[in-house]
């Protein structure tokens, strides 16, 4: 893996995606084998947004591999207000071996990566959620096998950061994704353009429709997310009205393939984007996804640190 940072899944090659999956599987199967893999390393966690899964799994993951973590809470003072992002990056690279940034602006993550000589991981931005997307497809490999070429996943809801990452990853591994979203809430057109370029090489199919039943027709997995992501809370009531027909109900799931998995990146709002009898059903794998954030992010951290060492030594 020659990549310096993980800003977007689009930046990865198909082989690098598979390497992340394989390493995550090994880490999950035999965590003690990797207990000293990051001995002496330190990780800075810089969070502008609240977090349960991202913070806990990065902190625990680094610690389980022998690294130490320092948490920088920027929920009160936004990044770049007290001190420039450039100066933060140039300071942190002198102290830590890896930076995880969870930010409102995708440009902030890009700026960190541009100035820091150590790897930078996008822990979430308004544009992309690469750790989540990689985790989701890794979870599916556990359920159906390592080859997801032709696997059909439907995403129903807002064409947001998670949706972007699911599209990018589908294109890398040859999966088929159909996004169902209200008009005006489709994924970013540039994301679709870039992903379809990759899809021509892998055989992936990427479709966007405006009918939820058309989106899930024949899908082997149905995925949704909150209708108003962080930063869009003021639009909650308006979005609830617009997205009401896109709620994942038992009726909608019945239009998918028999035994289709239900997926959600969490936190979930039962009664809004998904009914309780769907997310709490036996075909729901949302907690498997949450668990695998730990293993996938350990894989990402380990591979990036090893890649950075190789780059420096070359």
Number of E-state strands: 9
Regions with pLDDT < 50 over 5+ consecutive residues? none
Strand order of the largest sheet: 7-6-5-8-9
User: What is the quaternary state of this protein?
Assistant: single chain
Taking all Cα atoms into account, the compactness measure Rg is: 19 Å
Count the DSSP helices. Answer: 12
What share of residues is helical?
A: 40-55%
| Biggest sheet descriptor | 5 strands, parallel
Describe this protein with a few key phrases.
4-stranded parallel beta sheet; Rossmann fold; alpha/beta; 5-stranded parallel beta sheet; 14% strand; 314 residues; 12 helices; 2 domains
Write the layout of secondary structure elements.
Elements: H1 14-29, E1 42-47, H2 53-64, E2 68-73, H3 85-92, E3 98-102, H4 106-115, E4 120-124, H5 130-144, E5 152-156, H6 161-173, E6 176-180, H7 189-202, E7 205-209, H8 212-216, E8 221-224, H9 236-242, H10 250-253, E9 261-264, H11 276-279, H12 286-313
Parallel strand pairs: 1-2, 1-3, 3-4, 5-6, 5-8, 6-7, 8-9
Helix pairs in contact: 1-5, 1-12, 2-12, 3-4, 5-6, 5-12, 6-7
Can you put this structure into words, describing what you see?
- It is built from twelve helices and nine strands.
- Helix 7 links the parallel strand 6 and strand 7 (about 205-210).
- The chain has helices spanning about 15-30, 55-65, 85-90, 105-115, 130-145, 160-175, 190-200, 210-215, 235-240, 250-255, 275-280, 285-314; strands at about 40-45, 70-75, 100, 120-125, 150-155, 175-180, 205-210, 220-225, 260-265.
- The model has no long low-confidence stretch (mean pLDDT about 95).
- The strands form two sheets. A five-stranded parallel β-sheet has the order 7-6-5-8-9. Strands 2-1-3-4 form a four-stranded parallel β-sheet, sandwiched between helices.
- The chain starts with 13 loop residues before the first helix and ends with a helix.
- The protein is about 45% helix and about 15% strand.
- The protein folds into two domains: about 10-130 and about 295-314, Aspartate/ornithine carbamoyltransferase (Rossmann fold), CATH 3.40.50.1370; about 130-290, Aspartate/ornithine carbamoyltransferase (Rossmann fold, 3-Layer(aba) Sandwich).
- The relative contact order is 0.16.
């Amino acid at each position: 893996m020659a990549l310096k940072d993980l800003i977007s899944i689009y930046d990865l090659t198909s082989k690098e995606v598979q390497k992340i999956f394989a390493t995550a599987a090994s880490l999950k199967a035999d965590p003690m084998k990797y207990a000293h893999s990051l001995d002496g390393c330190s990780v800075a966690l810089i969070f502008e947004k609240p977090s349960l899964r991202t913070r806990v799994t990065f902190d625990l993951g680094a610690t389980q591999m022998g690294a130490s973590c320092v948490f920088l809470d920027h929920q009160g003072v936004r990044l770049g207000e007290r001190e420039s992002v450039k100066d933060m990056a140039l300071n942190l690279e002198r102290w830590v071996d890896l930076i995880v940034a969870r930010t409102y602006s995708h440009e902030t993550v890009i700026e960190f990566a541009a100035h820091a000589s150590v790897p930078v991981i996008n822990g979430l931005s308004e544009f992309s959620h690469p750790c989540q997307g990689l985790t989701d497809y890794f979870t599916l490999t556990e359920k159906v096998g390592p080859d997801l070429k032709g696997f059909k996943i439907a995403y129903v809801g807002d064409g947001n950061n998670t949706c972007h990452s699911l599209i990018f990853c589908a294109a890398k591994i040859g999966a088929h994704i159909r996004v169902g979203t209200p008009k005006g809430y489709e994924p970013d057109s540039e994301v679709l353009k870039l992903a379809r370029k990759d899809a021509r090489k892998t055989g992936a199919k990427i479709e966007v429709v405006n009918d939820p039943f058309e989106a899930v027709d024949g899908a082997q997995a149905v995925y949704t997310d909150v209708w108003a992501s962080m930063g869009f809370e003021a639009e909650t009531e308006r979005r609830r009205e617009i997205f009401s027909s896109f709620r994942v109900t038992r009726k909608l799931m019945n239009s998918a393939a028999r035994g289709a998995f239900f997926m959600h990146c969490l936190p979930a709002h039962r009664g809004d984007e998904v009914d309780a009898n769907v997310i709490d059903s036996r075909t729901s794998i949302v907690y498997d996804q949450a668990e695998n954030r730990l293993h996938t992010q350990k894989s990402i951290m380990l591979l990036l640190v090893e890649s950075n060492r190789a780059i420096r030594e070359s």
